[in-house]
């Protein structure tokens, strides 16, 4: 699992407007299908696709591999936008 650390340095009174947005994706399945026999085998599913609509129990099940969404690696993309205004 990759860990990312983001450091944002901000000068005092340099930003007038700051906004941030996060986008969450669930990528490859990491469920070990051979754990009960002491081995390691994954199914090769590359991206989570919900089986049902938002708010249903099927929304947490992958249509491709049938695993729960928690078995898929979570990626969070965060974008921070700062509008600069020069000091008066």
UniProtKB/TrEMBL annotation:
<feature type="domain" description="ZF-HD dimerization-type">
    <location>
        <begin position="26"/>
        <end position="75"/>
    </location>
</feature>
<dbReference type="GO" id="GO:0000976">
    <property type="term" value="F:transcription cis-regulatory region binding"/>
</dbReference>
<dbReference type="GO" id="GO:0005634">
    <property type="term" value="C:nucleus"/>
</dbReference>
<keyword id="KW-0863">Zinc-finger</keyword>
<protein>
    <recommendedName>
        <fullName>ZF-HD dimerization-type domain-containing protein</fullName>
    </recommendedName>
</protein>
<dbReference type="InterPro" id="IPR006456">
    <property type="entry name" value="ZF_HD_homeobox_Cys/His_dimer"/>
</dbReference>
<dbReference type="GO" id="GO:0050793">
    <property type="term" value="P:regulation of developmental process"/>
</dbReference>
<keyword id="KW-0862">Zinc</keyword>
<keyword id="KW-0479">Metal-binding</keyword>
<dbReference type="Pfam" id="PF04770">
    <property type="entry name" value="ZF-HD_dimer"/>
</dbReference>
<dbReference type="GO" id="GO:0003700">
    <property type="term" value="F:DNA-binding transcription factor activity"/>
</dbReference>
<dbReference type="GO" id="GO:0008270">
    <property type="term" value="F:zinc ion binding"/>
</dbReference>
